[in-house]
Amino acid sequence: MSQVLQHYKNESTFNPYLKADINEQIDARIEQKLQERGTRVFWHRPSDNSSYIARDPTATLDDAKDDPEAVYGIKVMDYTKYHKGKRLKEKYGDTLSGTEVDVSEIQPFEPEFQDLAVRYRDMLRNWKNGKIKTAGVITSAEYSALADPVVTGELLDLTNREFTLEQAVTRQNVDTKTITIDSITGYQASEDIGENDVVDTQNIGYTSQTISLKKHQIHIAWSGWANMTNRRRDVVADTQRYLDADWPRLYANNILNTLTGFSDTASTGGSWSVIAGGAFHSTANPKTSINARATAIRAAGGRADTLVMNSKTYDAMAQNTFMRQAGIFNTGSPVSADGYTPRAVTHPLLIGFQIYIDELVTTGDVFIYDRRTVLGLYGPTRTVSYYDERPNLRGQLVDRWFNSAIRTSTLGAQLTGAET
Questions:
Q1: Is residue 7 pLDDT above 50, yes or no?
Q2: CA distances from 170 to 70, 206, 324, 375 (A)
């Protein structure tokens, strides 16, 4: 097919009966078709948590409004079923029957993809169990002159994944690039009125704001000849591994920037770690500042249930003499040592609060808010694998739409100067 298209492309350049601009349009259209032949675009649809193959590789989210199948063309799998099956295997392990395992692993795929899923799964199992069939058996004693020394068995992954802020907001999945957020304010009953009195009528109130999701992208590419050079590592495969590695940092930075939209006030009494001279106790009580902000949030109709700070500020609070009265070694959940588990703790003197520790937060800053008022807006994901046959170039591109927003600014506050 490509040879036919290329033939017509070459012929059109020399067609004396067509104007130059028409020739250019034909060339551009043929070039587009050649590119589309080697392109497959996958979209993740947040509303049903499923992945689709786009019918039109060039379609955008705007096209989905008029023609949803251009973007969400062929359904591949349902991630909700996938995670349900994964949790089932983690819970029951080897006690599951073969049929139950097959259902949990294959059922998430649509019928037309289940056969491929079975073959791919079986191939991976055979590879892990050393059952891949080969034409002949070669032992480790043979071809010793061609052996390469092993330099290291495992790479040290230096990607930082210690981000917690995504856990500190209310997640909302959206299918569009813009979303309108409505909030409602109720009315209060009147108390202690006369026996025959009738109070004035009251109404509810609405507030609205429109938020646009931001597009974020990662793009990698490699020559078709990249692996013709012998290397200790598969550079292409290692590069592909990191397509999803940096999203948590990007989302956390976005959320932190949103949290700074709360009004800020200085910590009452200054730094939480300062000890009064000769008094052997802290000069500032963290609860004084936290309770003052919590009272204001409740007065605005919210509930103060979330604290965000970095580890140095948390240590200053936990070691503060006013906060140690319940026992410094009883200040919350253990912190994961692997650096990959979000760090969320509690404190016995801060009833009702979940504390999220993230090192992106500036030392001394503490965010206090109603978790419902801070939204993490997760839009669609577009994944493209393409091939340009003329230069023998391959690549992958991932688009993600995300943003965060504050519904009501009075339901949160920012403390500054809690630690130096």
A1: no
A2: 30, 20, 31, 5
